[in-house]
Fold this protein.
Amino acid sequence: MIEQTDALTSPTLKHLRGQWWTDAFTTFLAETLRPKPGMRILDVGCGTGTAEVNLARLRLSQLDLVGVDISVARVRDALTATRYMNATVGFAAADARNLPFPEASFDATFCVAVLQHIGEVSKALAECARVTKPGGKFLAVEPDNAARYWFSSLPSGMTAFEKGQRFFAAAASAGRETAPAAVGALVPGLLRAAGIEPLSVRLFPVFASALAAPPAELWEKRRNAATAGIETAADDTVRALGEEYRAAIEDYARAAEAAGPAFVEIQNTLLVATVGQRED
Ligand SMILES: C[S@@+](CC[C@H](N)C(=O)[O-])C[C@H]1O[C@@H](n2cnc3c(N)ncnc32)[C@H](O)[C@@H]1O
């Protein structure tokens, strides 16, 4: 099972990839894409090359992996991460909404935790479909950031969560354009219009639980996340919500300390993996 999420540190799973990308997740990726020698596979929004490093470990010679990312710095990091790997891996800087490849260039195409950053999700899906060969697999793994379950045995914990959700939502809507929070759950319904037949949906829960007051480091992370949000707030309204949120975290930390072993906190959120096939 996949573990570790913290709704009071991040409103999304964006910053937690290192915690949920497990061997089981790599196995799912490989079983879905069924990489075989000679296949050309595209990773859209490859980041620092985590998928390429993990897929290259399968030691399939003649597998041709191509990763693209809008961030040149990440493409550079991906190149460094895969430099000594025994696999054909290539990277390029490119926008998912305008992929620099001819039609039907790849046997399979996938993206992990990328569409959540893109306002024009349908445009990115249409591009993924265009560059995938007819009959080729498509896989999108995206969070449903609207599906956050939170329980705290302390009323101040419930308050901190509510204030955090309000603050993070206000900060996101005042910032740059991103996909709807429920993007993971929306993808299956968007595929047909892009020319991809949806085949299956699999859920990966990302969870955490605490059966005693959390350690000081977690409270520090929570405080720091609130402070970082306040410092980068787009306007006074967002800043004020951030201040309220930070104060709620302090109340919660004090109450948790007093509750000691009676403290309970349970969280869950979802990653939605949608598998599809490029229509003929
Ligand atoms: C959370 S990271 C995921 C990286 C990688 N897929 C992984 O799971 O390790 C999201 C990545 O999407 C990239 N990205 C965001 N918008 C993009 C776009 N329009 N086109 C291509 N990549 C994009 C970011 O630069 C970032 O590297």
Q: What stands out?
A: The pocket of S-adenosylmethionine is lined by residues 14, 17, 45-47, 50, 69-71, 74, 95-97, 112-114, 117-118 (CB under 6 Å).
